[in-house]
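task queued by scheduler; priority normal; single chain, no ligands, no partner chains; default sampling; output format set to structure tokens
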Amino acid sequence: MFHRLISLKNQVLEAFSRINVQLERRRDLILKFVSAVRDEMKSESDLFESMVKARADAASVASGGNVADIARREETLTRILRQLFAAAENYPNLKSGETLKNLDQEFINTANQISSTGRFYNDMAGRFNAWQQKVPNNIFASMLGFGPFELFEISSDGRFA
């Protein structure tokens, strides 16, 4: 019973680490995006400041935050990123450039990966939670201080603009 509990817990933690890899990739893409458009979009400095703060907030909870807190920070980051992409549409030089199109596609691919790894994590967390709630597993798990895992919920439509 103990080995099954530990095995399921490790599977959940591994699944969550896959989400973190994709979230870190997205934060790296944000840096590329900001570097690519900042000079052209000088009038959007408030939006850039919000983006930098939201990115730092998201990165700060990535390694030690709970699942809900991480998802909440990533939602904020997504909202600001959408605003930046929308603002970039008002700049013809950016809109017609390949850099923005390529970054948009990379963001879409990354959003798909976040969605996929999120579903996998939720499946693993659901299995762990179901197993540890069954009698007598629930007694054993609670004696050892194991509680249920939170599910990862973040909206992801794949498009940021």
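post-processing summary
- Residues 157-161 have pLDDT under 50 and may be disordered.
- Residues 2-143 form a domain with the de novo design (two linked rop proteins) fold (CATH 1.20.1440.20).
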